[in-house]
Amino acid sequence: MERNAEANPPQNGETKKTIRTFAFSSFFNDMGSDMIYPIWPLFVASLGANMAVLGLIDGIGNAIVSLSQAISGYISDRTRKRKVFIWLGYLFGGISRLGYALSATWQGLVPLRILDRAGKMRGAPRDAMVADLSIRSNRGENFGLIRTMDNAGALVGIVFCIAAFPLVGFRNLLLIAAVPSFIAVALIVINIREKPLEDAKLFKGISFSHLDGNFKLFVILSAVFSLGAFSYSFLLIFANRFGFQVSTVPVFYLLFTLVATFCSYPFGVLSDRIGRKAVLQISYGLWGLVCLAMICAESAWMVVAAFVLFGLHQAGIDTVQKAFVAELGPAEYRASTLGGFQMVIGLCALPASVAAGLLWDLVGMQAPFILSLALTAISAAMLFFVKERA
Q1: Which of 320, 328, 322 is nearest to 210 (CA)?
Q2: In terms of CATH architecture, what is 13-194+211-383?
Q3: pLDDT 10s digits, 139-197
Q4: What is the pTM of this model?
Q5: Cα separation of 103 and 106, whole Å?
C-alpha cells in the first residue's frame, strides 16, 4: 500500500449524515464557547490577572490543545476508534464552563482551562474521519462546511453574549454556556455510527520515518508562524486600550467571527480549485496586514479593519490547513499526523502568548505585532518550497 494512496469513499447518505452531524455538533459547541470568549480576557482580568498572566493562561491552554490532539490522534490510529474521543471532548468543554462559573481567583482557572482545552482531543480523530470520508475534489469543501458551522455557532454565541452579559453577568453566562456543549455530546452519541476500519494490521503506530521531507518542512514553517500567532485576547485588549469601551469589545469578536463564518466555506472551495498552498499564502498575507494595521493604528477605522482582516485570515487558515496536512501526510496515519501537527503548533502557542504578554508589558502594545510580522514573512517564504500532492 502506498503511503499517500487513498480510495474514493462513496459519498452516500450515511457519509453525508456524518458530515452534517459533525457540522451541527460543532455549531452547538462553538455557540457555548463563544458565549464566553468575547468576555474571557475581561473575566480573567477581573480576577486580578495582568497581561503576562493572561498570556500564560491562554498559552497553557493552547499547549494542552496540542498535546491532547497528538495523544488522541495516536491512540485513535492504534485502536481504530474515533467516536469516543469526539464526544468526550465536547463533554470536557461543558464541564469546564461550569467550573469557570465557580472560580474565585485566576489561579482556579488554570486547571479548568486545562480541562477545557483537553476537550480539543476531539479534533484529530474527527478531522481524520472527515478526511477519510472525503475525496480530493471535495475535501476542502467538507472541512469548509464544518468550519462554517463552527463560526455560525460562534456568531449565535457572541450575539447572545452581547445581549445577555449586561443582564446576567460573568458567572450566570458561564453556566448557560455549558448547555450547548452537552447538546453536542448527545448529537455525536446518537447519530454517529462508527464502522471498524479495514486492514488493522497496518496501524501499529506512526514513526518519524513515515513522514517525508516535504511534510516536515510544512510542520517547521507552521511552527515558525505559530511562534508569532498569539492569542486573540491580545487583539481584544488592544481595542480596549486603544479607546473602545469594554461594552464594545464583544462586538469586535462578533465582527471577525462574522467575516470568518461567511468566508470559511468559500476558502475551502477555492482551495479545491487553486490549491491549498495558494490559499495558505493568502492567509499568511492577511495576518501580516493585521499586524501592520495594529502597528500603524492611528484611527478607530484601522482597528476595525484589522479585525475584518483577522476574520479573513482565520477563515483561510483554519479551513485549509487541516485539509493540507491530511493530504501531505501518509493516508493510513491521518489522525496521528493531524494530531502531531496540532501538537507542534500548539506547543509553540505557549511561548508565543507568554512572549507577547511580556513584550506588551515591558516594551509596548505594538511590540508583539512587530515580532509576529517578521515570523509571518519567514513562514510565507518557506511555504514556497512545499510541494502539493496531486
Answers
A1: 328
A2: Up-down Bundle (1.20)
A3: 777 888 887 888 789 889 988 988 888 888 888 999 999 999 999 999 999 988 877 65
A4: 0.68
A5: 8
